[in-house]
Amino acid sequence: MEHEALLTKMMNMLGEEDRSVLQKRIEDTLARHAKGDGRDEARALRYLQDLDIFLHMPGADFMYARGIAETLRVGEEIFELAYVMKRAMERATFRLDN
Fold it and tell me: How far apart are the first and last CA of the chain?
């Protein structure tokens, strides 16, 4: 599944201590959005692609996008998750640098 490869890529950007908690949070979110209509794989992939985009946005752009969340096709929940993941990525980078 393509969404599993993308999820693994994102988890590898995090420090080991954050991975399991955030992966569970993402999987729980995907399960909540599943509708059993045969399009769940595509829906999961799109969600993870959106999350990946937000993870790679510079801080100012990310905050601007979060401010207009209601006009985007994603909800506030994805921004909260992206914010937590961006912080975890910063912690992992800081540990590698020190």
Answer: 36
Say if residues 44 and 25 touch (Cβ distance below 8 Å).
no
Q: How many CA atoms lie within 13 A of 75 on its CB side?
A: 3
- Is there a contact between 6 and 48 (Cβ–Cβ < 8 Å)? yes
In the chain, the amino acid numbered 24 is K
Q: How far is CA 19 from the centre of its chain?
A: 12
Considering the entire predicted model, what is its pTM? 0.81
- DSSP labels, 36-76: SSS-HHHHHHHHHHHHHHHHTS-HHHHHHHHHTGGGSSS-H
Q: Are 85 and 55 in contact (CB under 8 A)?
A: yes
pLDDT over 70 percentage in the chain:
91
Contact by Cβ (8 Å): 14, 55: no
